[in-house]
Design goal:
Helix content is 76%, strand content 4%. It is built from seven helices and two strands. It has a two-stranded antiparallel ribbon.
Length: 166
C-alpha cells in the first residue's frame, strides 16, 4: 500500500511538472523553469531519491514528447532530484534537500547537460555555460519548496504524509 501511494504521488508530481512547465521566469538571456526544482525537492523529501528521480525522468520525457521541453531537462532534473533525496535521506534535514537540489541541478546537472547539448542537440555551448541558468532556476524552485515544506512541517502534515496513516 505504501508503494502504491508513492507511485501515485510520483505520477501526480510528474503531471504537475508537465502542466506547470509553462511557468517561466525570464532572467536576462536565460529562462528559468523553477517548478521542476520545486517538485524535485518535494518528491525527494516525501518519496525518497528513487521516486524523485522517476518523477523527474517522467516529467522530462513527457515534456520532450509534447515539445515543451528539451533534452537538457533530463540531466539537470534527475541529478538534482537524486542529490536532494540522497542528502535528505542521510541527514533528515530539509536544508540538506535544498542544498542537494541546488548543487545537483545547478552544478552537476549543468555540467552533465553539456555533452547532451553537444551530442544530441548539436548545440554549441561551453562546458560551464549552463551553470548560471540552471542554478538560478534551482535556487528559485528550492526557495518556493522551502516555504511549502515549512508550512507542511508546521501543520504536521509532513509527518502524516511520511507515515502510513495518510
Amino acid at each position: 500500500m505504501k508503494n502504491l501511494r508513492k507511485m501515485i504521488l510520483t505520477a501526480l508530481f510528474a503531471a504537475l511538472g508537465v502542466a506547470l512547465s509553462a511557468f517561466c521566469i525570464p532572467t536576462g538571456a536565460a529562462k528559468c523553469y523553477p517548478i521542476q526544482s520545486l517538485l524535485n525537492v518535494m518528491a525527494a523529501v516525501l518519496l525518497g531519491p528513487a521516486y524523485a528521480v522517476a518523477m523527474a525522468f517522467l516529467t522530462s520525457l513527457i515534456r520532450v514528447m509534447l515539445g515543451t521541453g528539451s533534452f537538457l531537462a533530463f540531466p539537470g532534473s534527475m541529478i538534482g532530484a537524486f542529490c536532494s533525496g540522497l542528502l535528505y535521506r542521510h541527514f533528515h534535514k530539509l536544508t540538506a534537500a535544498y542544498i542537494g537540489e541546488a548543487a545537483g541541478t545547478g552544478i552537476l546537472g549543468a555540467l552533465a547537460a553539456y555533452p547532451v547539448a553537444a551530442c544530441l542537440m548539436s548545440a554549441r555551448a561551453a562546458l560551464f555555460s549552463f551553470i548560471v541558468p540552471f542554478s538560478i532556476s534551482s535556487l528559485i524552485g528550492s526557495a518556493i519548496s522551502v516555504m511549502l515544506l515549512k508550512i507542511l512541517e508546521h501543520t504536521r502534515l509532513l509527518e502524516r504524509i511520511g507515515s502510513n496513516n495518510f
